[in-house]
């Protein structure tokens, strides 16, 4: 199931390293719009009543932030339906208007005329498909980029902050975007409490490097098993043979470490 780990983080089931500061800030404008600092740029959304949210883990973040009533359309939901229903209930998930089973085309998004398209680079935004914040803006549609996908200055490489900090920022920003900032703050506080508990647990003498491969397209890299998440980067050990390579663990934890959501490689 695609990006299972990211979904667990965004709904508060799993915690591994979030902070409370980062690249994004949010405020409600006096004219009724919402201004956010998203990926280092100040963006003002004049209307936020209709969101088009792409990808299961981003849908989970928006729901956790209190966005249920503002999410009018979704896409790329099917692979994550079971875990989303387990968290938010079948009625909520079945009630979402799924426009596309895969990432949507520009035409599909424009046809729904949302106020804001919530997605990310590699998560529904792509220059090669002419699906960018600029092309959407030309159609009167705002874009919220998930923080994990923010690009490093002057490059197209993603990753500008700790991934768990990115989740906290997105929860708070989307909470403000949908008018439920208090709900979002409660979720972040709960997540931070879980992190504190995790970090206070007994630690191993040696922290193993762990590579978690989830699905065919998405990879999450955790620098250490002992509860500190590292910067997002592609998982080379699992990437090269599309899930078929055996991963040897020099520390003696075994090989081909598997779970329902994907594969773990320990180095």
Topology:
Layout: H1 4-10, E1 25-28, E2 34-38, E3 41-45, E4 51-54, H2 56-64, E5 71-75, H3 81-88, H4 90-94, E6 98-100, H5 106-112, E7 116-121, E8 124-125, H6 133-137, E9 142-145, H7 163-177, H8 181-200, E10 210-214, E11 218-222, H9 236-239, E12 257-259, E13 262-266
Parallel strand pairs: 4-5, 4-7, 5-6, 7-8, 7-9
Antiparallel strand pairs: 1-2, 2-3, 10-11, 10-13, 12-13
Helix pairs in contact: 1-2, 7-8
What does this protein look like?
- The chain is an alpha/beta fold.
- It is 30% helix and 21% strand.
- It contains nine helices and 13 strands.
- Strands 4, 5, 6, 7, 8 and 9 form a six-stranded parallel beta sheet that branches.
- The longest helix is centred in the C-terminal third of the chain and has 20 residues, at 181-200.
- Mean pLDDT is 75; it is low at 1-26 and 213-267.
